[in-house]
Amino acid sequence: xxxxxxxxxxxxxxxxxxxxxxxxxxxxxxxxxxxxxxxxxxxxxxxxxxxxxxxxxxxxxxxxxxxxxxxxxxxxxxxxxxxxxxxxxxxxxxxxxxxxxxxxxxxxxxxxxxxxxxxxxxxxxxxxxxxxxxxxxxxxxxxxxxxxxxxxxxxxxxxxxxxxxxxxxxxxxxxxxxxxxxxxxxxxxxxxxxxxxxxxxxxxxxxxxxxxxxxxxxxxxxxxxxxxxxxxxxxxxxxxxxxxxxxxxxxxxxxxxxxxxxxxxxxxxxxxxxxxxxx
Length: 279
Fold this sequence. Notes:
By secondary structure, the protein is mainly beta. It has helices at 11-14, 207-212, and strands at 3-5, 17-19, 34-35, 62-63, 74-81, 90-94, 100-104, 114-116, 128-130, 139-141, 161-166, 170-174, 180-184, 188-191, 268-270.
């Protein structure tokens, strides 16, 4: 995959880039593997905004991706497809019983190739097997946090983790963020790197493109009135109020820990923040 540039016909086009969709084999999704997705504009059942800066966007069908494939399957890749709801490509696969699935595609998947799942699967790229059977140093994605629950980590475009070590019960994995954590060796993972590696280099280029993605504008707190945000008000200066950064509801955000569910702390060997210097 590579990045496609536009001719600078307008100021927005000058800085805009997109992916070239190389490797996508079909534009038409399988109807039985899709479902309608209503735009709720970030609102709950009371109509209140619970997720800000959402709304609008182009209509799109939700692809029902299977993150927890059954064991001992032999899957044939029939199509590589674009998924408007995620950064990675997806693969349409058919098992030996004629059942179709959508799975996250990696960089090695091609139309007509065969992949396998389960403990008996060979150690080859794209196969999904227990971590206990994966060699050290391998690149993996689609990792389970809880055995049997399905892929929960490493699902974004271009993402991959590295298997560092194994003992009787746990494997040590280095995450893309730099965090090193433990995962049960009974958990499953897929070998390889998630597809669409160049996604991080795409430049949006225009505000309208963001709106078609369903993302509404974000307004800075320092340009609001004092009644609307803790940063609001002042004499019109551009450097803010001198207050510590806060949310619209007054909660501190800079250097303030917001992670409250810490039951997985014991699995983190090295934090992703370790070794970083504050400037």
